[in-house]
Amino acid sequence: MATTSDIRNGLCIRYNSDIYKIIEFLHVKPGKGPAFVRTKMKSVTNGKIIDNTFSAGHKLEDVRVETHKFQYLYNDGEFYHFMNEADYTQIRLLEAALDNPGLMKEGEVVTVIINAEDNMPLSVEMPANVILEVTATEPGVKGNTATNATKPATVETGATVNVPLFINEGDKIKVETEKGTYKERVKE
């Protein structure tokens, strides 16, 4: 059993007969009344995100998890297929278990969180940043740069990312996976 003081990002808990992963939390100590923890949790079975508030000291049933490195192989439309780097076993996951599947390219190494009790995969954590090649974007128009102007660009995985006007087709860019936002252009 865990308490609200054990809450951290990535913690998996059993709540309302489902398993949720904490994606955001905030400890609040108001001037009046008891302290509480405001959380944003994502269901690992269906991908739904819920907000919940726990009072301070509330008991939580945590789920014991293990993390393993897996390599992303391919997507067959319904399932995403991964291979364990240690023993080469393969697993397949539904899109709901993935945080941002549009930014994952074949061969990418990700961390898969597995329930230690029944060896079922719960969720996939991507690296903080990925480097992707821009495959299609409109050319930037000079003089259109009064403020931080951006334009949509399609990357090699098929996802669309807003990029600055100076980015052209063929450029490699670093994308933050958590938000799906442009970070910087990568020089080769």
Q: Can you walk through the features of this model?
A:
With 188 residues, this protein is mainly beta. The strands form three sheets. It has a six-stranded antiparallel beta sheet with strand order 1-6-2-3-4-5, with no helix packed on it. A five-stranded antiparallel beta sheet has the order 9-8-7-10-11, with no helix packed on it. The chain starts with a strand and ends with a strand. The protein contains no helices and 16 strands. The chain has three domains: 2-62, SH3 type barrels (Roll), CATH 2.30.30; 65-125, Nucleic acid-binding proteins (OB fold (Dihydrolipoamide Acetyltransferase, E2P), Beta Barrel); 129-186, Beta Barrel (OB fold (Dihydrolipoamide Acetyltransferase, E2P)).
- Strand composition percent: over 45%
Roughly how many Å apart are the termini?
A: 49 Å
The top-level CATH class of the largest domain is Mainly Beta
Shape field: flat
Mean pLDDT across all amino acids: 85
Q: Would you identify the CATH architecture of the largest domain?
A: Roll
State the secondary-structure class.
mainly beta
Proportion of residues in helical segments = under 10%
Output the helix-strand order: EEEEEEEEEEEEEEEE
